[in-house]
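Quick log. Single chain, no ligands specified.
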Amino acid sequence: MTIFSRDALKNQHILITGATGGIGYETAKACAEAGANLTITGRDEDKLAALQGDCEELNPGVSILLFSADLDAADERDSLLDAAVSENGPVTGLVNGAGIAGGGPLEELTEEDLRRIMELNFTSTVLFTQLVYRHMLVSGRGAVVNVSSLSGIRGTHGNSAYAGSKFALIGFTQSFAVEAIEHGIRVNAVCPGYVDTKMGRASIGRKGEKTGRTYEEELKQAEASIPSGRISTPEEVAAAIVFLLTDAAANIVGESVKI
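-> predicted structure:
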C-alpha cells in the first residue's frame, strides 16, 4: 500500500543506483507506483529483471530501462547516463542508493577496504551525481536523494570506514544542496538506521559475532535501543525517498531525514 497518488511522479524519469539492494528495490517499486519512468541499475542482472517485472505489475504503463553498471568505472557511468537519457529522456530524479558496508576497528582496517568503501559510498556517488547534475542544469529542475545512514551523523565502535564514507555523503549533500537550489534542483539525504535488508541483517550478524551474541540476541539488543522498538523496513525508507522526490517536498533543501 502506498501513500502516494499514481501520478505523484508522472512524466518524471527517476534513475536509481543500487536498485538490487533492499532499499533500492523497494524505492523503484514505489516510484513506479507513483507513475515515474525508471532507469534502474545494479550488479545483479537477475534481480534487475525481477524488479522490472515487479514494477510493471504495479504499473503496466511505466517505461523501465535496466542497466548493469560498475559505478567505480568512469566509462560505465557515462554509458549508464547516455542510455538512460536515450531511453527515457532527461533525468528529473536521482536516487544514489549504491553502497557497501564493511571495515572494522581502526587497528584492523586495511587500506584496500578503506579505499573500496570510500570509492563506492562516496567518490563514485559524487562523480555520477556530477554527470546527472550537468544534464539537470539544462532543464532547470530535478531532485537528488542520497542514501546515507545514521552512521553518517554519529560514529559507532568498529565503524570508522563506513561511518566516514556516510559522514562525507552528508557533507556533500549539504554543500551541493546550496549550490543546486539556485538552479531549481533540490538535494536531500535519508539516514536509515538498521533496516531489514540483506545488508542490515549482515551488519547485525557481524556485531553479534564481536559481542558473542546470536543474531536473534543482537537484533533484540538493537531493537531495545530504538524508540519504536523495532528496526525499519525497506518500504518505510523508500516512502521517505519518494516523498523527497515529489513536489510535496518542494522547499526541503539539504536535509538529512533520520529513519
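The CA atoms of residues 20 and 196 lie 14 Å apart.
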